[in-house]
Amino acid sequence: MEASSLTRRAVLGRSALVAGGLALGPLAARVAVPAPAHAASAPGALAAGIDWMAADYWALADRVMDRMDRRWRDSEGSYSPVASPVSTAANATLLTVHATAALLGHTGESRNDLRAVSLVNQLVASPAPWRGVKFPRNRDKMFHRPGWTQSLRNGRAYQDKAIDPKVAEALALAHRAGDTLGLDQAVRDRIVDQVDRCARGSFFRYPNVRLNQINWNCELYALAAQLTGDPELLLRDFRRHVENFCAHATRPEHRGGTPNLGAGWKFTYLPKAGRHDRLNLDSAEYANETIHFILFHRQARAAGMTPLSGHSRRVLEAWVERTLLGYWTHAGYLNWDTGFGLRRAHTGKTWMLAHQGLLAIALSPEFHHYESYGAWAKSFYDSGLALYDRWLDDSRDREDFLVDPSLFGLAERGQDSSARSLFAARVAANAVRAVSSGLDQARARTPPPVYSFDPDDGRVAITTPAYSTAILTRNHRAVGYGGLEPARLMDGRGNVAGTLGGDTPSSFGLRVLAAAGGTLADSQSGETEKPGERPRIEIVHRKGRSRRRITQNAARYPRYAYAGKFDALETNGTVRRSGVEIRTRHVFLPESIELAWTIVVRGERARRWEACFPSWGGDAEVIVKPRGEDAHRALGRGDRIDLADAAWFVVRSEQSGYVVRPRVRGELEAWVTFPGRRDYAPDPGPTLVLGQRRSRRIGVVRFGVGVALLSPDEDDVPVAAALAVGQT
To answer: How many separate domains does the chain show?
Structure first.
């Protein structure tokens, strides 16, 4: 064994200390989060939400591990695919499940002590996946020694900063469960030695960091302190990383670069690049991965770390608020916009890595603006696990009985069998982390309708128990959608009700056409090339009798994020192009949406306009309920109906849908169109189109509709949803 940063005597002594249960930190002591003060006085308040206990978390973990059983390879002593570039990450994550089950005395499918021991032996083996200090350098941009590689078998495999802390977490858990597992003392010593070496290696020491993702470094410091009993890295490097991150949250660290956080507290992926770089659009996934470092703050303070500066605490409080309310939905799914587009968005393994951000927020009340944020974070966390559990029911016809890692059929490249394994493993690990961290002792509370607003890019994120959506006014040309309309529409259970992106007619939007049929202006066409034509948006936040207007010129870096609860949220937007001005006034209510447009045309070119309402999936359909009739019927290709003769329409997607009730009728009619495939709409259904009956000169037009989501148990005739937007 190579010389360690600790003497062998110190390693043995501190190893015994940890084995005796004297270490501090999330892995050594369960953190109990107090239930919200209102919980006892509001029985039944959670009836409509999800609030999991330990038994629920274990049930999901056991269910996943039962399906993972067929991937175990006795000859390899690990889970397949062993040669995959993600084999180290997947097997370390599964060791986290097995070791936690042993540590807490669980007896279900998650418990397998023999496999746990085998996985420990695999992960400490050298030259793969453990790479010592004498290993030859290669061209890997994240090459470091000592550390772990991505492959269990290939010593020359690439490395990634996200691998090391997750291997260290699994090995630390196995170390704590060493007596139960029957680990040899030599193996325990090797675990302590390797984790400590990796944490103290130059790659992870301050000031070195990959971009601004200090979470990987901080997690390693916490694990090394738990295993060795030496808090040096927590006292010094942890604090320095956090202070530096927060110091440059509002001002660039690099010349020509961008602050770590945007003007409305969104996350910056590339701090060395300019604000308008595609990758700096936003990053729901990396924001939640990075904020995970706050989970180790209490451990550092308990070890004696000097308190954070007042500026850092204010930054973290605002960022926690923006992250919780701007990146998550009531279904536990990400309200997902990212500069990486479909290279990250809607990938299962990435969703579950980001999911740990909710765990950190739930267990870090010292950074909560409101006490309720912990209970809300647990609600989102539990709902995400419940969503995967429901999808697991739908995966029985697949060969390996696991959920497809390309969620909604959207994600690009690399979503193969190994990605499916890693996705499932991370779900199981997040379930058992809830138990080992004490989250199961806290109580969840279903959040009310909440929003967030980023004035710099005009992004509005909205989630209610009934639906979730977002408006992305400026898209940096990084994604295939953008404008003044709801970019996506999902119901409260995480099903696609309308769309997940695209441009009209595969998205919500209103467009104005020339006589020859070309589009002159579109409220949802993505960012335009000329700065003067870029859409502008403002919001009006209504809560009780108060009204607050926030424009895109709002103050940068407010004390608290532009986010919170709402009774109604109004968005007012404008886009001008080719002599056409489209104004939007959309009002988002807890259970429905009011969409309204005003068209102002200067000139003779514009001759027709149409508003689009998309559906999702091959079995989708558009249904019309005629006025004065009990029957309803589907609109087919070539069918047209006067709006004066229609009470309301149903846009029914494969697993969800919504009702559309026109507010203005006039000389208008409805029909359906069938959009082609888009990157963000790979399986579009028919789109309901409402518009002019014939081509004619346009002056000023006002049009509006009410929209309400179908409930999961809606009848064939969705009366309840129709009532939500008004009956004729």
So the answer is: 1
